[in-house]
Amino acid sequence: MKTGKEKQLSFSELADWVIDQTLKAGANDCRVSLSKRRLVNINYRDRKPEVIKEATTKNLNLEVFINKRYANQSTPDFRQSTLAGFIKDVIESAKIMEEDPFRTLPDPKYYEGRSTVDLQLTDPDYGSLTPEDRHKMVKTVENACLEKGGDKVISVEASEYDENYEEFIKTSNGFEGSVQNTYCEAGASMTAQDEGDRRPQGYNYIGCRYRSDLPSLEEVGTTAAVRTFDLMGGKKIATTKIPIILENRGAARVLSGLVNPLSGNAIQQKRSFLADKKGQSIASKLFTITDDPFIPRGLGSMHYDGDGFPARKRDIFKEGVVNEFLVDWYYSRKLGWEPTSGSVSNIIIPPGTRSVEEIIRDLGRCIFITGYIGGNSNSTTGDFSVGIIGKLYEKGQFVQNVAEMNIADNHLNFWKKLVEVANDPWKYSQAILPSLVFEDVVVSGI
Amino acid sequence: LTGVTYCHTFDILNKKIMQRRTFIRNSTLAGGALLILPALKACKSPESLLTGNYFLREFGIDETLCHKLLAKALSKGGDFADLYFEYTVSNYLGLEDGKVNQSYGDISLGVGIRTVKGDQVGYGFTQDLTEESMMSAAATAATICDMNATATGSSFNLLKTADYYPLPPDFNGIPGTSKLPFLQSVNEKCFAMSPEIIKVNAGFQNGTKRILIVTSDGTIAEDLIPSGYLYASVVAERKGKREQSGWDLGGRHDLSFYTDRVVDEIAGKSVNNALKLFDAIQPPAGEMPVVLGPGVTGVLLHEAIGHGMEADFNRKKTSTYCTMMGKKVAEPFVNIIDDGTNMNLNGSVNVDDEGTPGKKTVLVENGILTSYLHDRISAKYYGVEPTGNGRRQDFQNYPIPRMRNTYMLGGEATPEDIIKQAGNGIYVENVSNGQVKIGEGDFAFYVSQGRMIEKGKLTAPIKDVNIMGNGPKMLSNIITAANDLEMYQGGGGYCGKDGQAVQVSFGMPTCLVKSLTVGGTQQKGGRS
After folding, report:
1. ipTM entry
2. How far is B224 from chain A (nearest CA, A)?
């Protein structure tokens, strides 16, 4: 772009300018979000760098409300000279829409009461991370994985990814919010030689807000190799009804099919099998889900949600009962309900007291599910079906690894079968879930 | 269905899972989430994008500057470097509750600069097309090497390509005003078809991508790539029970593709499919014969063989197919092709994203494995010509081997013969998503709609069932194919790999797979 030199405005100054221009151009209201992300990614394979990637991205998103009409557009171009044309475009796009009386900025009374607690989302040491540090991190992970993998290794890829993110949001009716956070991830994937042409690939990637919260890098690499060994010799067994344990780190894949239908959108659009279940018990008493935005250094922690409403701690499910829907401003107006917030932050299931090992010892024959493949969940009916990978145990003893198998059920039946929650919440995620134990699940195979 | 919503809600958690190889049909989902691609006319309003030299005209990108950037990228050595300029304007209009009331838009503009040494890649990108920012991105790319500078060529030649998605000379995207009537018409037709329809969502997504590729070995390639689709997703209610279904049509088209016939097909399939589901029974569980209906079931090829044939996995020996080249993998009637040259299909490319012209690549010929899908890096590794499969999501990502339109040629049977031959099993009509584990070859695809096959006849509908198999085993288990190859004409299909989404399509004739694992809830013998 042929740039004339323009004065670099701060996010806050630019947001004010955009709001001013948008209102002058005829909009009744608007919301502007500005964000910037600096990212670095380094991958190694065969003990040499395979990929080095580094860049900064920025984005300006403008939502325009005009005569009960709405448009939302993004651009990476922050120059005021071109933004003037962009603003006109967004307004023109809104004007051709049909009228939608529900689409407005929130009533400002809902902006009030925001917590100012320090969420500790920015690693104070982030800036001191050098290219040499990053290469050293990857080499350590790679080395540990190669060493543990030994002669089974066909290929190991190790990586480091980190980013520094900033956003600023302002509306024409009084909301203003900003976020700053950092993220650092290290991990590896390993491919191993198995029987015949099978080359199982296991992986272990761990991410945190603070680099110092990562487990030891040796452990990160070693675990990638161990998780690959856990796939070796994986075979299906005969179709059976059996207890299963969803491993902590992957359990959200199944849980998401139960959480998504709680949204105001799904309910108002009649695509939710939970729409008439509020206050009803649909799961085991052990099943409580808390949405907690205030966990220090949490990957889902936040002060405000997508509408600018103050984040608050809430129980979505309480002892098996549907306690609260996820209703944003727009769908609250369509439904004629009070908004509850359409965003989820950190999702927590309170842990139990026993370890997975102890539980397996008492379960008889069971499958510990460590991975998934394919699958989907129907939000209208609650039916789901998903491929699984895991380990078969009998009376606490490991029998074999299983692959190419599947679990299927309806969410309204499935969560009633939850019989125990383990003591191992997975903290490297927005969904801080412990391993979950279910009985009598049909696992299909041969 | 909630595939996309799920990625959205738990994206941090599942980041790595989403980097596995997956395919998701965006269009079968209701509004929101990933559909919010974009939008716009742009920061400038070009009179026409088709007249060539677009980036020179609009952004002052000339040969002198390109030379300078490539020299910087190769300033510490390397085999070659390339520049990928992109300017994409996308927009989405959505209809909900009878009103076209959602307008989303996005502009993607920038350059990605890559330095390649053997199989090593240095990559920098910037959204800011100033010389200073671009030189800095080139310097980042150069850090992959630590030797003396490599010389760049002295002149550039414009690559001549075929045109697999011809556009009128004044094409400049599809304006929002012309999309509105289609959405309103889809809505009216869906409701008119049945009083049991209680909700209709419709959307019209389209994008106009302009790219310029400049390589250090002297190639310049430009392309203008249209994309888009119109979709409907409906909810039906009968006796207190609800079911949903949807359909989409699109591809690399301009507005002229979207006719009443297209609207009728989208509305008809969405409504009829949703109504059929009220009679659906619990799907069976366990191994059984599976008949794939024609068209979208080609997702099975995409997962079972396509990904495994991407040459990066084979060069790294991480694909189950890496030792099978030249070997018999299927019956002699099986021919599988990955093709960038189909007219107007979602995966077609005039030129790939590293300057290789679009081609047709035979993966399996008469049952024998014949070629991997190559980018420049893997082609050099294997000493073959690139196959035109070097693709990327956008300028923020470097190219890797990706599929285009993947299909199997038809056989000689009729669909009726095949259903009869299956005996007892299931028939797959519609598929929403799939996934594969490259190293094991294990794959899954999610059947949103199908039928039971009992005693050689199609009987009760089934829905929402995942089907699992192993790629090489499945290939050798394709025992009959019909003469009814159909290409999937949807425009909402995206394939994900290493965090990059690209548009793909596929095709399939009706065929019989001797045995796959059906992930239902009904243990065998449960239905008499």
Report:
1. 0.91
2. 19
